């Protein structure tokens, strides 16, 4: 509201100032015309008439033209009043001088009205010129002040932004300090975990290695006792000896599995391009006797080349195929192996059996060390195979899981012909899947 009032006062001042200057110009032009008529009536010479008209009307024309063209100059409107004021001051000064001179009777100009008109017209123009210069100077000073105020506002804004940036920088430095401390703590924790894992691996290796010899001795002496005292032992004693020998053998198998589990990271081979077709052929050969005894059918689609440790990947496939045959039930086992490209850098390998399936509550527990879902009377084993598979897959940067639909009486496969590309999501059985990194194009 204050700004609008100020703009209104400036506008009124500009109009009033221009009006005064234009009015003075009109006045002197009118006086020049009127005095010209007087001179004509007095039959004054043409030269005197023109000269007097110019001396009176010329300043009027200058005032009239200059006042009307003020908006086109570099003078700010609020200083138009300065121009008018200087013009009036010039007129007033001359009138005062003439009045003072009129007080001297001997040299009075009372009889020379023409001279009064000429002198006041010229003094008014002189005041107009002074007013123009003064108004221009004030306008330039005002513009400089405006620029200074704008610069001051800009400087204040920049300082405020600098303070904000300084606060942001301080907060960032504080956050960076926190992140660095957190990173240092994480690095220390990772280092401690690595050292702890290394110690645990060393302990597991040492324990597994050192326990094997006493267990072999126990087993050997028990077998020796069984052979030498075969005729002297009662049936109950022979049964106890058989239990002891079996327990020692199972303990040795568990220790060997634990030893193998602890050496996945430290004793693994190099990671390089591996053809899973070749790996599967080796697995078939290793399990040839088990496949023939169970009349199993191991079917596989096209398998890719992946990056991995060939020996460890062979262990994974052999464990999964062996389990698929072992837990398939009474019917001849059918094992389906398939591969699917998950994205540009990962393959998903699936091994599916037609067994009774695994309860969802047990689908994570089976990957823990020494966890079994069946009694040893039903199925042999140490309970470390799937845990070993998981650790090998994780060493390759992948993951392993099982999808299963428990079904104690699975229907036999009605299709007698092998399907080279089986559907791992069909009902019944279990599908063990794991991911492996794909081979780069340059490595093919």
UniProtKB/TrEMBL annotation:
The keyword Metal-binding does not apply. The chain crosses the membrane at residues 20-40, 46-67, 79-101, 113-132. This is histidine kinase. Residues 206-440 form the Histidine kinase domain. GO terms for molecular function: ATP binding; phosphorelay sensor kinase activity. Residues 141-199 form a coiled coil. Keywords: ATP-binding, Coiled coil, Kinase, Membrane, Nucleotide-binding, Phosphoprotein, Transferase, Transmembrane, Transmembrane helix. Residues 400-444 are annotated as: Disordered. Pfam families: HATPase_c (PF02518), HisKA (PF00512), HisKA_4TM (PF16926). SUPFAM superfamilies: ATPase domain of HSP90 chaperone/DNA topoisomerase II/histidine kinase (SSF55874), Homodimeric domain of signal transducing histidine kinase (SSF47384). It comes from the Archaea. SMART domains: HATPase_c, HisKA. Residues 407-419 have a biased composition (Pro residues). The keyword Nucleotide-binding applies. Its EC number is 2.7.13.3. It catalyses: ATP + protein L-histidine = ADP + protein N-phospho-L-histidine.
